[in-house]
Task: structure prediction
Amino acid sequence: MKNMRKVRKYSAYILPSLLIVSLCLLTISCTGKNRKGKGYEDIGSGRGLEDSTIPGEGIDGRLYGLKDINFDYDKSSLSSSAQDILKSNATWLRTNSTAVIEIEGHCDERGTTNYNLALGDRRARSTRDYLVSLGITSSRLKTLSYGEEMPLDPGHNESAWAKNRRAHFTILSK
Result:
């Protein structure tokens, strides 16, 4: 009889504890199943736009309709080929008139971290300023500098560095 009371006393704690542990395990297992990566790992829709009509990032690292631009070494000025690409990007932005995009400034690995963050910022801002000069509302264009932190090509040669000196576009909202 005494043992039976102990079992009832502890079962009042054991059953709720098992229920809580089971719910925690269920929650953890469900949240990890459909998690999409961010940035270059995500080849599906852009950040949270799974139900959007605007296409997301493609496997080649560019948005459908929005192409990256590249910069010369240690420069944030736009070349004529970069301006041509941005004119095409501006057409896409006019067609998708409610889209808000982020312009990411990137650099190669040469230079200090602080210098490259500042250079990436200048690249993103010069890109934004040119799009604004083409009639795109500045409130739809956010800028962010990654400096050298997110290289497109991890190589340590001129070919890789040329790919990493860029402005990349990400859709934030449709």
